Each structure stands twice: as structure tokens, then as C-alpha cells.
Amino acid sequence: MTTAYSRRRMLQFLGAAGLGAAGLAACAPAPKETEPLAADDPKANEKTFSFASWTLNEEAGKPVVQGLLDTITTKDGLTVNPVSYPYNEYLNQLTLQVRGDKLVGAAQLDIAWLGALAALGKLRDLGDAAKDGGYTSTALESGQYEGKQLGLPWTTGAIGLVTNKELLSRAGITEFPETIEDFEAALVELKGLGGGVVPYAASTKVAQLKDILFWMKTFGCTLLDGDRVTIGDDASVEAVTWYKKLYDQKLIAPDVDRFDARALFGQGRAAIYDDAIVGKGAVIKDSPDKQLADKLDPVARPVLKSGDDPQAQLWGHVIVVVEGEAANTATSFARWLTSDQAATDEFFAKLALPPTTEKGLASDAVANDPFTKAFSERITKTASQNPFWRFPEYAQMETVIAEQVQAVLIGSSSPADAMTTAGEQVQALVK
Amino acid sequence: MTTTLDTPVLAGEEREARPRRRSPLDRERPAVRVAAWVTIIVFGGFALLPVYWMLATALTPDGKVFAYPPALFPADVTFEHFASLAGNSQLFDYLVNSAIVSGVTAVLSVIVSAYMAYSFSKYRYRGRRSLMYLVLSSQMFPQALLLVTLYAVFDAYDLLNTYTALVLSFTTFTLPLCVWMLKGFFDTIPDSLIEAARIDGASQLRIIHSVIVPLSVPGLVAAGLFAFVRGWNDFIFALTLAGPDKQTLPPGLANTYLGEAQTAWPELMAASLVVSLPVVIAFIALQRFLVGGITAGAVKG
Amino acid sequence: MTTATRPAPPRKQGTPAQGLSGGAFAILLVLPGLALLVAVVLYPLISSLVTAFFEQSLVEPGRRFVGLENIRAVLDSDFLPLLRQTLVFTVGTTLVPFVIGFALALALNTRIRGRGFLRGAFLLPWLVPAVVTSFLWMWIFNANYGVANGVLEALGIVDEPEAWLSSPGTAMAAVIIAKTWASFPWMMVMLLAGLQTVPPELHEAAQVDGAGTIRRFRSVTVPHLRGIIGLVLLLELIWNFQHFDTIYVMTGGGPAGTTETFAVAVYDTFYKGHDLGRAGAIGLLWMVLLLVLVVGYLRVVDREEKA
């Protein structure tokens, strides 16, 4: 009886679903067709467009970017509609917008996201606009995807090690170690300071475990060789083994991502951490130490053998333009925002984000800022792109690697097994 | 005693007319009172300590927020984070959008669910059961996937970046709770009342509006409040379907305070508390409708 | 008097056996809701289910029919741990808030001082914007500066900070606690309201017959609340299966995937992997699984009702 009864119920569920299906034919909307627009189409010169940007809505960035927008709108008679999503949701939302042809205009992008958005095939090649913009070659490179200049660089830097000079000198470290071996010894010294100091607030949470890729590179893993993923080779295993050793000796701490690392560093509880130049403001704001700004010192990542080039991941924001209506206007807007001397000066003065043009970098404000200068010389100079960025599924690759590294850290997998698995899974995503 | 016991369970009208009785537990042994207080202190602590922590954080100056060990009772109190909210006009826009979306959702949801629930409760027809389960099963699929198609659907009807898109989605997602709950409520209204109205010549629609609705005010208010909170709390639909002008509070807060370089904890906590307050006050005010509003809404086969 | 010697059984309330006539009107009443369901849920649902049988990318155009390949791929890759974790999370976040909500509802149903205020105050966790809740708890449980460690250390319960969210043993419990905090108030309100509808006569009669507090709870209160309990549990079960932002924010599914659920997997597969087919396949399996759970649950409820 009961079984018959439940079968009837199952049928009712299915019946319900079927009934809905019947209603579909009537309701299914026809997909909208959009024709690609030629660059010389007058519509491409329309004066109204959207500008998607997360900086535009954050507490610190908002007044600055809004001010820049106000300047250009009055100057050129444009109407710019701001679009904004929280940083963590930004790429997903922008993907939906661009995919559905909903975004008309320009968008700010983290350089790591270029591959994913480019795959939609709707971004304009900005090669002509970039040509005489006076951008540095590193900056230009950060906006390139498969040989096309899809983004104009807005700010370019790198993710590297930032240290607290005071803590280092208290531990007797006057010269930052050049090799991994010395680095490790320095961490032990720092641990000896006591007081709950985390010597190196390295990322150990999923969100930024990607930082480990550049430690792998330091150990000699190329990450990618053509289309072959090399994670899982000896160098990568060594790197993770080393990371695990630091973890077990509590030289790095569990449950840390970029945000946590900044918090610890700001409190003087971490001596070294990984960050891009954009993090400086946050660290200083949340620190009780009013002199912290003077104690910040960016340093080159230690290398395996003395004399090797230090590894760092390129970091930056670019502006892309979606092909279609108002694309010409949006392009000149993007060009102005990223290369106009007054605009980049303002951007640097208020947000401390380095400009991308030779002239901008040469300006007094930038050239004389010790932190920015040191950061460029020691870190950005040898920084390189993350080779996985060019794959649209980069975010998934990053998660796969992070999970495997975590498995090593919590002891549920050996470095060799975990890296082999990570390599295979990433390879499967390369396609 | 026997007669009291056998009296049919009171329906809305009589229930309202009945003076509120003292709970039978009033005359309980001290053991029960102690148990009640222990429960309140233990679970109440779990409920309110994090709220206290939000408040403490909102009052802590920037430099001390991440201190460890944390200052459980902030020695150094600042009101700057609350003050800075006043200067943020956009926050007020988000609040207004949230109030509109949640309010309209609540009203629409009550209307749509009441009709549906009434039909399920008082009529018998083929496919009734199936429809009831359809309502329930509408939540059994990943919303992240629904969202993307929904985005295209709303786009096709030019409803993206409108209140309408949000209201329609939220209303639909509140149907399972509201319909099933209201059906339980209507089940307790005796048919004799409806028959009597019909004999007096009232039309079917009129019966609903002038007989059922007045009897069900508490239930309708309860359903409305739940629908309100559904709209109030949603993040991902609001983020995706509403443009910058129609953005509600949850995405708005994330947008403003959870940034690339910085999570502005004290401001975020201050803002969350401030925007929650009006709703809490509304809740306390509406509580007398709510209590007694949700009858034993039955999950029956 | 014999009937009065034991607590009365719950009575069926005034549901008519026959129902009213007027079929067309009945359907008319259902139409607005049905239209919403079809447009907002059913059409997207079916079109997503269809993608389960295709290879399709979020970012690249075109799609290719692959039959059951996606479903097979999902079942082949760590499906069981994912299923187990999903069930642990779903059942945990359904039962724990239920117990707390029920206990508070009972406590606040007694005539204690300040209950009006407490009823309001306990709603706060539910009304704090949910997006903030996850961040709040992530912070509370943080290994390096979280207040949970601060309090426990001050009380001498732990010697050194624990990494709650980064240890496989505690991460799931931590996310369940966070979700519990956000959802027990509405259960409390539902159950409290249900308690108010228990006719005092039932309790009085039982008390006259000498039934103690616990016995009255079991034989009067619980049977009377069966309907509301059933509804609350059923909906929580379905919603928690769906829930993902608490996990996503607090642990990102880590450490090493030990808090990953179907909901997180769908999100990652969809937005990060851009694999619509595979996401659809997870959705399909999810729906089948929930249908089985819900049908089984309703069957149990039915059987109890008949008994």
C-alpha cells in the first residue's frame, strides 16, 4: 500500500514537471540577435556608454574615479553610466553581461581575467589606440591576449614580498636574504621574536594559494610548457614540500589569505607577506602604528641559487572595450583614463597605484615615492605573467591547485601525489 | 471537561475573539522556569554574542580592529563609523531600493499565495496534488543555474535592471512557504462559514475578500513578513538582475565595503546594524499579528 | 469522563472531505502563481536540465550533444565525498537550528519576564543581511585574530589559537554553526506561533489527569505542532541543499575540498570551469536526489498521520 502510494506521489511530481514543460512553448522567449557593428558605423560614436569598474564603488576609490569621470564627461560631453559589482563577484557578473550583449562601453579588468573574458569574442582589439599612448612595454604586455591588445593598462605592478623593516631588524636581519635557504633561516629568527609573530603570512586559504605558483617557479618548475602542464615535476614537488615544512614549523600560518595577511601585517604580527602595491593603503589604514608606512619595504623574492632572477607575478588592471555601440567613444575614454598625464597623476596621488606610461612613471610624484620605486625595481622589473591566465578556465585551475596544496598542508596527501593530481586536473582543463 | 475537549478547534474568528489565556506552563514547577531560563541564556548567548561583536567592532577605531587578543569590551570607543554612514547617500538609495523590492514582494507574494492556497485548501480537482508538489519542487534545482537562464528570460522581456525582475523572482521563491503555510491556515476555517456566505448570495471572489481575508489577517501578515525577509536578504539574484540604480542593500553593502584591497569591517558592521534596525522594529511592532498567525500549516499527503 | 483521562489526540481541523464546487474558479485562483512558477522556475529549470546532455561552455559559442557523458563524468569524480558532505551540511543545518529554535520557542512560550523583548532580539541574526553573516562568522572563527579563539583562550579552554576553518575536523562544524545562527530565528518564530495555537484546554485537561511536563510535551504539544514541524523541516532541507554562500565565503569548500557541497560544486563548475553541461548534470542528479529524499520524507509523515 505504502509503496503504491509513494509511486503515485512520484508520478505526481513528474506530472507536475510535465505540465510545466507544456507551458514552455508559449513562454520561451526568442533569443535576441545582435549584429556585429563595424567600427565606422555611426553608432560606434555614440556619446553614451557604460563603464564597469569595481574601484568605482569602493570606499577608497570611488571619489577618485568618480572625479575623473566627471572631468571627462564635462570635457567631451559624454554620458557615462557606471556599472559596479563587488570585486569577488565582478568577473562572473561581467561575463554574464558581456555574454548577453548587455554591456555597451568599457570595463575595468584584473589582468588575470583577460583570458576568460576574451573567450567570449566580444572585446575590441585596441592595438591602434595603444600604439602612441606612451605605455611601457610591460604594461602593454599585461593587456595582450593571443597577440591582440585587448586591454589598455590602467595600472601595472606585481605581487611580491612586502616586509616590516622594524621587525626584521629586531630579529637581527639587516640584509634581506637572497636565497631560499637563508630566507628560511631568517624566518626561524623572526619566529624567535615571540609574541605570536607570524614570520611570513603566506597564503594558505583557497582564495590566494595561487601565490605558491611563483614559489614553484622559484624552484624551477615552468608550470606550463607549450600546452603541457608541468606541475607534478620534481621542482613543483620540492616547492610544496618546502611550503609544508614552513607550515609545520609554524613559520607560515593556517587560515591566511591576502586580506588576513594584511590584517596581521598591519598589527605588526607578521613580518613578511605577499601583496600587490594596491594593498598598501589598506594595511596602513587598519594599523595602530602610525609610522608603519615608513617601515614598509618591498623586497625581491628569494631565489634557489644566488644570481637567479627573482620570481614575481605581474599584477594590474586594464580597461577593455566591448565591440559595438559607442565602442569608438569608449576607446578614446579608455585611452584618456589610462594615459592622460593629469588623470594618471591624480590616480597615483590619491590611490598610490602606479601609472602605465613612461611619462607618468617619470613624474616627480611617482619617481620620488620610495615605496613605489623600490617595488618597481626589486619586484615588478622581473615579474612575469601567470602562464595559466590565457586559459578561460583559469579560475578553475587555480582552485584545483589550491585544493591539492591544501591537502598537503593538512597532511591528507603527499606532495608528490598531490602535485601529480593537480597537474592532471589542470591538464584536463587545458583542453 | 469532556465538552471542552470535544469542541471543534477554534477557527480564526473565534480564536481572535477569545481572550488570550495564560499559558498552561505559567503554573509550572520552578524546574520548568529554570529550564526556560537556562535555554534562553545558553542559546540566547549564541544568538546575541555575535550581534554584540558586530556592535563592538563598529565602535572600534580602525587601527584596533584586528588586534589579538581581541578587546572583548572595547576600551577605545569611536562613533566615526556610524557617522560616516550619514555621509554615504548611496547607502540610503540601497535602503530605499531594498524597502521597495521587499515590500512589493511581500504584498504580491501574499496575494498570489493566498489565492493559490485557498484553491488548494477549499476545492478538490484533478491535478491539485500535482500542483502542490510543483510549488514545492520549484526549489529543488540549483539556483545558480536557474539564474543564468532567468537572466536571458528577463532580458528578452526587457526587464533587466528593473524592480519587476527582482519582485517576480523573489515572489516565486516564497511561494512554497507561503502557499503551504496559508493552506494550513485556511484548512482551519470551517466550510460552513463559506457556505453561509454563499447562501447570502456572495460571489466566490467576494467570499475570499470579505469572509476569508478578514479571518486570516494574522496568517497573511506572517506570510508577508517571510516574503519580505526573502527579498531583504537575497544577494545573488539582486546582484545579477538589478542594475546600479535598482541595487538592493546586500549587493550594495558588498559593493561598498568588501573591496579588492580592503574589507572595511567596522563600517560594514555599523551599516549592517543600522539597516537591520528598522526591520527589527517593524517585526516587533507586527509581532502581535505574527504570533497566532502561523497555524499548524499541515504537510499532508 | 473517560475521554478526559488521557490527553486528547490532535484533531483534524476543519478540512472538508468533499471540498467546494466551482472547478474553473479554483483553477483561476491558481493561475497567477502557476504563471510565475513556469516563467521563473520551470522554463529555466528545463533548459538547464537539457544542457546536462550537451557539451557547452559559458564563454564559447556552440554546443554538442554528448548523451550521458556529463552525468558519467560527475559520478566518476569524487561523487561520494561530495554527496556525503552535502548530506552532512544539509542535515546539520536543518536539525541544529530546529533544536535551538524549538527550545527557544518553548522557553519563550512560558510567562517569563521580558519575553516580548527577547522574541524581538532573537530575530536579529535572521535580519542581518545574509551576505554579512558569512563574513562575520569567517572573522569570528579566524585562526589568527578571530574572537572565538580570543574568548576560548581567555577562558583557558584552548592554549593556542585553533585553525577552525582550516582543519578538516572542525571546518564543517564551523560552517554549520554559522548557518545555524542565521536560520534558527525563523524556525523559532514559526514554532512559537504554532505553540500559541495549541488550545490551552488540551494542556489543562492533561494536567488534571496528572500528566507531567514532559509527557504533555510529547502527547499534546508535539502532535499538535506536527504540521508546522513537518513544513519547517521540509523547507529547510530543500533550502539548505541549495545554500552555498556561507561555505563559499568561509572556507571556499576547503580545506582540501572537505566542506565542498553540490551547491559549491555547481557554482565552481559553472563560473570557474564554464562547463554548463557538467553543471547541468550535477543539477540533474541533485534534483533526483532531492525528489527521493522529499518523497521518502512525505511518506514517513503520511504513515505517522495514519497511525
Automatic annotation (TrEMBL), chain A:
UniProt cross-references to Gene3D superfamilies, sorted A to Z: Periplasmic binding protein-like II
Source superkingdom: Bacteria
The keyword Electron transport is assigned to this record: no
Signal peptide from the UniProt entry: 1-21
Classification via InterPro entries: SBP, TAT_signal
Keywords tagged on the record: Signal, Sugar transport, Transport
Molecular function terms, GO-annotated: maltose binding
A biological process from GO: maltodextrin transmembrane transport
Pfam families: SBP_bac_8 (PF13416)
Annotated GO CC locations: ATP-binding cassette (ABC) transporter complex, substrate-binding subunit-containing
Family: Belongs to the bacterial solute-binding protein 1 family.
Protein's name in the database: Multiple sugar transport system substrate-binding protein
Phylogenetic lineage: Bacteria, Bacillati, Actinomycetota, Actinomycetes, Pseudonocardiales
TrEMBL record, chain B:
Record's compositionally biased regions (Basic and acidic residues): 12-24
Chain residue ranges for the region called Disordered: 1-24
Pfam families: BPD_transp_1
GO cellular component: plasma membrane
Bilayer topology annotation: Multi-pass membrane protein
PANTHER family: INNER MEMBRANE ABC TRANSPORTER PERMEASE PROTEIN YCJP, MALTOSE TRANSPORT SYSTEM PERMEASE-RELATED
Record-given protein name: Multiple sugar transport system permease protein
Source species of the chain: Actinophytocola algeriensis
Automatic annotation (TrEMBL), chain C:
GO biological processes: transmembrane transport
Keyword match Chaperone: no
Cellular component, GO, one term: plasma membrane
CDD domains registered for this protein in UniProt: TM_PBP2 (cd06261)
Higher taxonomy: Bacteria, Bacillati, Actinomycetota, Actinomycetes, Pseudonocardiales
Cellular localisation: Cell membrane
Protein name: Multiple sugar transport system permease protein
Residue spans crossing the bilayer: 20-46, 87-108, 120-140, 171-193, 225-242, 279-298
Species this protein is from: Actinophytocola algeriensis
Keywords: Cell membrane, Membrane, Sugar transport, Transmembrane, Transmembrane helix, Transport
Stored PANTHER family: ARABINOOLIGOSACCHARIDES TRANSPORT SYSTEM PERMEASE PROTEIN ARAP (PTHR43227:SF7), BLL4140 PROTEIN (PTHR43227)
Ranges of residues in domain ABC transmembrane type-1: 83-297
Pfam family, one: BPD_transp_1
Top-level taxon in the UniProt lineage: Bacteria
Chief place of localization: membrane
Entry similarity comment: Belongs to the binding-protein-dependent transport system permease family.
Record membrane topology: Multi-pass membrane protein
